[in-house]
Amino acid sequence: MIAEIGHYALVLAFILAIVQSTVPLWGAARGDRRLTAVAVPAALLQLLLIGTAFLALMQAYVTSDFSLVNVATNSHSAKPLLYKISGVWANHQGSMVLWVMILALFGAAVAGLGSNLPETLRARVLAVQGMIGTGFLAFILFTSNPFLRIDPAPLDGAGLNPLLQDPGLAFHPPMLYLGYVGFSMAFSFAIAGLIEGRVEPAWARWVRPWTLAAWSFLTLGIALGSWWAYYELGWGGWWFWDPVENASFMPWLAGTALLHSAVVFEKRGALKAWTILLAILAFSLSLIGTFLVRSGVLTSVHAFATDPERGLFILVLLAITIGGSLTLFALRAPRLKEGGVFAPISREGALVLNNLLLTTATLTVFVGTLYPLLLDALGGGKISVGPPYFEATFVPLMIPTLIAVAIGPMMAWKRGDARAALARLRLAMAVVVITVLGTLALADSSTALAALGTGLAAWLIAGSAVEWADRVRLFRMPLAASFARARHLPRAAWGMTLAHAGLGLLVAGITGSSAWQTERIQVMRPGDMVELAGYEVTLVGVGEVNGPNYTAERALFRVESDGRQITLLEPEKRFYPVEGSQTTEAAIHTTLIADLYAVIGDPDGQGGWTTRIYHNPLVPWIWAGCLVMVAGGILSLTDRRHRVGAPARPHPARAAQAPA
Amino acid sequence: MRQIVFLVPLALFLLLAGTIGWFMVESESEERDTQTLPSVLIDRPVPDFDLPPLAGIAPGLARADLGGKPALVNFFASWCLPCQAEHPVLMGLPAEGGVAIYGVNYKDPEADARGWLGKLGNPYERIGVDADGRAAIEWGVYGVPETFVIDAEGMVRYRHVGPILERDLERTIRPLLAELGG
Predict the structure, then answer these.
(1) Are B20 and A333 in contact (CB < 8 Å)?
(2) Are residues B92 and B132 in the same domain?
(3) CB contacts, 8 Å: A327 with chain B
(4) Across the interface, do B20 and A373 touch by the CB < 8 Å criterion?
(5) For chain A, what is the mean pLDDT?
(6) B145: cis peptide before it, omega within 30°?
(7) Do B38 and A381 touch (CB under 8 A)?
(8) Residue A305 near chain B (CB below 8 Å)
């Protein structure tokens, strides 16, 4: 019964979405306020309906209602509650319901919080949101209905892929989707702006915080996914340039570009058409991300849900969305009035450079991800584009990008002075030189590339610190006065400093893990000892343990250094009888500077086990960096000017030191 | 002129969408298999190779030895666990007759290979020792175990990646051998 209510709510939501996408648009075109007024209640009701459907599905999972095909094929009564709940979105149909629910959530946010928007703009934005909703609800109802019944109902379910039964991955899809779907806001505003034929600063004031929110969620989502891959797949790596990872990385890159171009738009009224194009691009790439993961067109090491027949539906959906919006862009964008001229050497110029580099980087990832598909289409055979391609194309593009990150914020708007900016960064340069020399001198296996990496990381962190110190006039006025300045610094400025410094941590982590990772792979018997990076790792023994829905072989390693016991590591190899599959659970000891990472493999039948032990320097910084970046994003979101009801014109003294 | 710039994104998209759409139609008609790894050698003569024997066990293997009757060329190593898993299946095959089973011992110390075959039995008529993995590169081998089906004309007809299990034998390899007249 509850499932039928959920199904019915989805059908109603579909019909309502059609209304929401047409009536307000018609009203806005004709200037009929009675028709435009439909948008707000429609968007709020949409959230209620889709929320009902989502809760109905969750109820079916929590109570293990195996009369639903979706629950029977993806859940099991013996599964822990957390994974019964996350099971809702760990399968194709349920994840699509989550997708539209988040869309409805964002739609309702515009409806509820957008009273300061011009009425026609709000109606048009909600209409565009309604169109996206119509497409996805049709997709769910016609090809991926999660509420289909099965008769007779099986006694128990088939279980959830054990790899997905993990706390990291329970929250990965919702975060990722909040990011993906979050870009629908920028997209809807872009399309609405194009339909209106003009975009005002009010447009950018709305687009920027929502883009920032989407970007923060996406960053967190990608970090969670990468962290999961690191400890669950047991390969000691954290990023594999896998199509599924690239699918989330492309919208992130485009979204990062959008975030920066929207600043220029908001502050200076320039780059309007470009910002709109980026908004279309970021959301299109989010849709392509959904498509790539869901259709299985690309062979990926972790494509869990593959349904080629649904791919065609999404492809048509994509063609209409992207083709339609780009056609609109081609027709309307030339008419937009661009404001705010600026010299090439200026804050705007630096942000344009950032945008060019980031979009080029997006393109290289896009080509690397889709090239195998195209080659296969042309009969060239199956290939998989691996890390060497990305290291040869993406990484070189990042070097100038990262160098520019520290210089950009030092430039003045309109007309900057590059020499003065660099002079103010003298201290940061000194830090870089010391870091590079230190890297070359201290680490015995460091290459020039590793020194470049640590140098860039130092540049980002020191550059951000110098820029912050400059802003608060640290040591140039009494400390108390500097402190007061820091306290009154706009939160957006703090956000930028944090995000850029977080990027520095991330770069340091990437450098450390790729330059200094050491690994030992061998067969060990109880009592055997392996030396690695100054640790002596001894296999004490391997025993059987029972989990809630699995049995496992758990190894016990004693880790010593100079005869002193550091820690015990207990990696597991789990067997899930319901699903008939195995997972590895790496054991990780972190010092916050480096990870010691142990995995237990198969027994050799003669009392020994294959074991893999890695020493991963600086890897914890990767996730620390992502978290700092997210913190920067969130801090910036709480900036006064984004708050509802805040005066439209910021305080003049603060506007003068406005952040990027 | 300025108008044209704004058409560029759309043009690029249409180009891409057209290519992908074409791919979708193509794959619809050809029934592409997304699971197996194809080999560029399919329906082409086996590559040139000449490997020394595993002394005391079986004579060596070269291109000249293939042809005349259908054959399986199986790349194996004593250090490879999946090879151990498929070994009984290979052991059972000669009894069915009509097919020659050749082995290529991949990057394996000879003593180890000899001990392994001595313990588990030797299903191979001929064994080539590929100590440096050079022949495996010629054949485009992905990893051991890997098996190629060669017809009586010495052409590669099928490539199997991973261990041959009873299931694979039934579904693909036996029917293919029957078709080849094995």
Answers:
(1) no
(2) yes
(3) 10
(4) yes
(5) 85
(6) yes
(7) yes
(8) no
**Residue A363 near chain B (CB below 8 Å):** no
Q: Judge if B27 and B78 occupy the same domain.
A: no
B168 and B79 within one domain: yes
Q: Which residue of B has its CA nearest to A276?
A: B6
Three-state DSSP class for residue A644: coil
Of A308, A323, A373, which is closest to B17 when you measure between CB atoms?
A323
Q: Is B100 within a domain?
A: yes
d(CA A168, CA A637): 25
Mean pLDDT estimate for chain B: 82
Maximum distance among all Cα pairs of chain B, rounded to whole angstroms:
80
**B104 in a structural domain:** yes
**Residue among A329, A257, A323 at smallest CA distance from A284:** A323
Out of A327, A334, A382, closest to residue B3 by CB:
A334
* pLDDT tens digits along B30-69: 444 444 556 677 788 888 889 999 888 889 999 888 888 8
Instruction: Please say whether the beta carbons of A69 and A149 come within 8 A.
Output: yes
Domain count, chain B: 2
Asked if B34's CB is within 8 angstroms of A326's CB, the reply is no
Q: Do A323 and B14 touch (CB under 8 A)?
A: yes
- Note whether B10 and B79 are same-domain residues: no
In a domain, B40, yes or no: no
Q: Which residues of A touch B4 (CB under 8 A)?
A: none
Instruction: Report pLDDT digits (tens) over A79-119.
Output: 888 888 888 888 888 888 999 999 999 999 999 988 888 88
Distance from CA of B97 to the nearest CA of A (A): 33
- A453-461 mean pLDDT: 93
Which of B6, B13, B20 faces A333 most closely, judged by CB atoms?
A: B6
Same domain membership, residue B26 and residue B61: no
In a domain, B19, yes or no: yes
**In 3-state terms, chain B is what percent helix, strand and coil (to 5)?**
45, 20, 35
Range of the domain at B1: 1-32
Burial class for A197, CB neighbours closer than 10 Å (0-12, 13-18, 19+): exposed
Closest residue in chain A to residue B23, using alpha carbons only:
A377
- For residue A602, give both structure tokens: 């198969």
Q: How close is the nearest chain A Cα to the Cα of B68, in Å? A: 30
Same-domain pairing of B108 and B145: yes
Beta bridge pairs of residue A559: A537, A567
Give this complex's ipTM: 0.72
Chain B nearest CA to A190, separation (Å): 15
B78 and B163 share one domain: yes
User: Could B14 and A376 be called an inter-chain contact, meaning their C-beta atoms sit closer than 8 Å?
Assistant: no
CATH for B167: 3.40.30.10
Domain identity same for B126 and B84: yes
pLDDT tens column, A57-86: 999 999 988 888 888 888 888 888 888 888
Distance of CA B59 to the CA centre of its chain: 21
